Amino acid sequence: MRTFKYALFAAFLMICGFLSFGGSARAATDASISGTSITYVFPNGMTYVAGGDIIRTMLITDPSGMPAVDGLGNYVIDPGKAGQFFSGLEFICMTSPEAMAASLASGQDLTAQHINVAEEAAFLIAAAETAYRGDRPVSLQAGRTASAPVLIGAGTMIDIDIDSQTLTYYVDGIPVLQTPVVTGNVRGGCSTPRGNYTVRSKATNVTLVGRGYASFVRYWVPIVGNSIGIHDANWRSSFGGDIYRTNGSHGCINVPPSTMEQFYPMIEVGTPVHVH
Question: Is the model's pTM score more than 0.85?
Fold first, then answer.
């Protein structure tokens, strides 16, 4: 069974002067990650639950969007993704609505206290090793100056960026999943329509039929009528880049199969979808 270790992340933190500890790094199994549920508790009474799905979004991924492994077959956490998560968590749970609006407008951080990212990242990794389930009073520190994280609203939404060929899923304004995709074929006149939509429904094991094709997909999430949606595409060996310009879809958003399997249970009907 594949596991992930935090050796690389710990090394990164030690290089930066954040951590100093001895002993060997332990590993977390897929089962222990899935069983983890941390309820972060803030001084103002706000809470946020981070489970295995969120922890997995912090893993380093390969170009296809699948979790990458090191030479020993272990998953490796991405320090940048962990930092982004805690920055977003801090912004949402520690900033008043008025200060949030001012911060987004000015690009400046208006929070007096900040999450101790190194300490919380270390706790999260240790929690994933033991399938920890329970509360976690957030460790705070003062005196840091930073820009407010980039958030799209404060709710849950799916953002599809055609130019960068990426899909990002936000929960309470925090990006919890991002993957390369392939959108509509520009040369073939099938560009994915830009605009604001919603998830209309969900279905599994569907055959998509159109002029000249019939494609079986395991996961189908329509957003424009029942003709354009988000789905897995096991016939593709790569995603992202400029594929969509000459070898794109018939208008749908093609997602790597392993990522779609992870993403599908998270999606709820009615979720806003922004295609731009």
Answer: no
- Asked if 167 and 274 count as a contact pair (C-beta separation under 8 A), the reply is no
The string of pLDDT tens digits covering residues 45-95 is 888 888 887 887 777 777 766 777 666 666 667 777 777 778 777 766 765
**CB count, 10 Å around CB of 40?**
21
HEC string of 230-268? EEECCCCCCCCCCHHHHHCECCCEEECHHHHHHHHHHCC
Give SS3 for 102: helix
Q: In this structure, is the dihedral angle defined by the CA atoms of residues 241, 245, 250 and 252, taken in order, positive or negative?
A: positive
Measured torsion, CA atoms of residues 199, 202, 208, 211, in degrees rounded to the nearest 10: -30
How far apart are the C-alpha atoms of 117 and 99, rounded to whole Å?
A: 21
Tokens of residue 45, six digits: 């009474």
CA atoms within 13 A on the CB side of 162: 20
Complete DSSP assignment for 156-215: -EEEEETTTTEEEEEETTEEEEEEE-B-B-TTTT-PPPPEEEE----EEEEEEEETTEEE
Q: Which of 183, 163, 180 is nearest to 252 (CA)?
A: 183
| Nearest of 110, 246, 231, 106 to residue 179 by alpha carbon | 231
Residue 78, C-beta contacts closer than 8 angstroms, at least 6 positions apart: 9, 58, 59, 60
> What does the pLDDT look like over 161-205, one tens digit per residue?
999 999 988 887 778 888 999 999 999 898 999 888 889 999 999
Q: In terms of Cα–Cα distance, which of 256, 198, 258, 261 is closest to 229?
A: 198
